[in-house]
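**Backbone description:**
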Amino acid sequence: MIAPILQVRGLHKSFGHTEVLCGIDLSVAPQELVFIIGPSGSGKSTLLRCCNRLEEPTSGAIIVDGVNLMARTTDINAMRRKIGMVFQSFNLYPHMTALANVTLALRKVVGKSRVEADAAGMAALDRVGLAAKAKSYPGELSGGQQQRVAIARALALEPAIMLFDEPTSALDPELVGSVLAVMRELKTAGMTMLVVSHEMRFARDAADRVIFMDHGLIVEEGPPAQIFGAPKEPRAKAFIAELTR
């Protein structure tokens, strides 16, 4: 059996007296696209942010590519290069071109020369269909293009897994498709992805597995056909019914 690329075991996260994650167990296999759905406040984004320790878990284990991120000896910055993260907001530097945004970490963190970084950056921009916009500044790009630059920035580091936190929720509806098309291409190319999103049609079409969270717990998980077509848990059933009204 192939070892999971991501394993989350007994993950708890509290903010003060509020427990947001109440013991999450989750495994993601290489090349799997796992979709996390659930009502607002169910802990979806917190789970994602704990997976690269942007949020510090209260307890539990997070193992990426065989390395426990919670171990004292782990170089968390080195491990973060293996975990691409795409946020709701694009977080691009407005004074830098698309290419400069993509290559910044390659030069500053990985230590590549400008020539090497630019070659990798152009390849990443090409993957998201934006090689022609390499010299454009974020202000000259649409929201969908900015988000694709953000995806290219994560891809340039050649991560083992990509985490997407509501990647289309800040976009106008007509721009969503271009970002989902890139995610679909990544899936085809074998990228492992953990996605929090409200794009249910995309989840139905592209996901290998859908996880339904509520109140900090995984309530139900299974193939999209089961979760959307015949959910077993009443909470999942009610949530899906609300979505498809």
About this structure: The two ends are 40 Å apart (CA to CA). The first strand starts at residue 6 and ends at 15.
